[in-house]
Amino acid sequence: MPRVFCCDYQFLSCGDVFTQGLFHAAQDLGIDYAHADWSVPDLIQQCNAFKPDVFFVVHGRKFCHTNRPAAFAARTAVWLLDEPYEVDDTATRSQLFHHVFVNDQATLGRHPHASYLPVCYDPHVHYADDSPRWRRVGFIGGGNPTRDRYLAALADADLLDYVVGGSWAYASVNARCLSGNITPDMTAGLYRQTKIILNVFREVHHFNRHQIPATALNPRVYEALACGALVVSEWRPEVDAIVPELPTFRTEAECVDLIAYFLSHPVDCEDIRQRCAARLVGHTYASRLQSVLATVGLEVAA
After folding, report:
1. How far is Cα 172 from Cα 184, in angstroms, rounded to an integer?
2. What CATH class is the domain 3-120+284-295?
């Protein structure tokens, strides 16, 4: 079986969700797997002692600040997860890896040896159960002006039960804030309690001077649907390609009307939710890890 060593990264908002997801994926696939955070001082020694077939780096920025991929005695690969928002930065280091995987197809041309690898969900964490969905509508994520506008519109219409994250610009939204941040397991638990999860995408492009537009879905769509909630989302092109049934909006008024409709029409809500969830059944970390291994020439059966 292939041997994989993964360099982990803890994200500000979603924490260790990728660390957990890839670890569980390796278990599901039965591959030899080891991992460590980018910050451990003996990362090179740990990796080279394990003798992996592939050294797989998640995110990569902080890793590249303290290490060079050439020091690792294995084929190297990186999964860039902030495309296209930070493409000018990621393009300066992606050339250091044998293989590059990007979450958004929009920047495939900016990286050598690049392949598309969308985000996904972890079925060990993100799953539906029979718990009562006693919360109507929620949102979990960082604050930005676009999210502020949509959340305030829902709060003013009394269609928002809670938010997690922030910071938030409107008092009506802050009044519904449960916490500044929570773990992936707690996030999944909230999704299982909620009928509808709002999705509004990231907004600020930190390193994208050509303003390449983002096209990709984010983890929230996959994870909330896997937990049995309906996702009502801001539109992006990848919605049409991956989950065309997903209810989408382009204005605050459309958002409010959609959520009001689904709350008052539970049969339609459940029908759409089931159809959306069925589209994403195979979009797991195990599937993504299989794709990585196949790309580097290491086939593994599920």
Report:
1. 25
2. alpha beta
